[in-house]
Amino acid sequence: MTNEVLLEVRNLKKYFPIKEGLFGKKEGKQVKAVDDVSFQVYKGETLGIVGESGCGKSTTGRSIIRLLEPTNGEVYFQGKNIAMLNKEKMRLLRKDLQIIFQDPFASLNPRLKVGEIIEEPLINFSLYDKQVRRKKVLKLMDQVGLTASQIDRYPHEFSGGQRQRIGIARALATDPKLIVADEPVSALDVSIQSQVLNLLKDLQKELGLTYMFISHDLSVVKHFCDRIGVMYLGKMVEISDKQSLYNDPLHPYAKALLSALPVPNPLKKRERIILQGDVPSPSNPPAGCSFHTRCNECMEVCKSVTPKLQEFSDGRLVACHLYNKELSEKIS
Question: How far apart (Å, rounded) are the C-alpha atoms in residues 306 and 37?
């Protein structure tokens, strides 16, 4: 990992209009799936994004590479604001921005052979001639643990873990600089998960890749990521290196999440933080801090003022009024 910023996201928003009524008319209401999210990804690192289902993790990843068009905000990749690029320029840039999808069963075309699936991005970007592409495909298959004899098989002939390896090979075909891994192991058996994660780690060292790793599994994120961003209801509430986050989480939501992790020592008990109530609707989020309705450390200011993501200590960012010196004397 270096100090060079490869990707910078500023105030990213993605709202989905709600259609109501008999003819699906838009009533002005919106689901705020991603609401004013900002963070940086450094070259060569793995940034993990965690949170409950529905918090906006996958929507953030897809909005960054514009599989979903952002409602607002800026996305700088290698210093260029890609949110402003037209469709053709964005299409060409996708050589450097690739995604590994969550479901290896649904993300592969069942009518194409494995070799054709991996070769497709090379054809799309007019890279190499047919003979060179064939060699490239065979090399990619070898890198992800598939054999040359499998090149003419169809996806249904492979297991879940093998299909995900095909998806990884396809993502690597254009030699990308950043890969968004959208819960790449959540659909796999636990025994296969570790194999795929180790493969991704080995490929990162070998090819100098940068990952944005989206997951709801805190144990996987701890093993795989360098820094971690915690999301809640479309907002980023804490960003920290993994050691600091797991040893001393700052935001009350991060504390509650990590308190649910099992402790390997049977003699050591961890105090479990039970959150009250349900996650508010993203179409009607609460005023002020989005977490204040479930927070056991809620103050009066939390109900009306939205906390900003600000630096707490070296490299650690948190969006919580408990750490705002102007509003609270809690932190000395």
Answer: 13
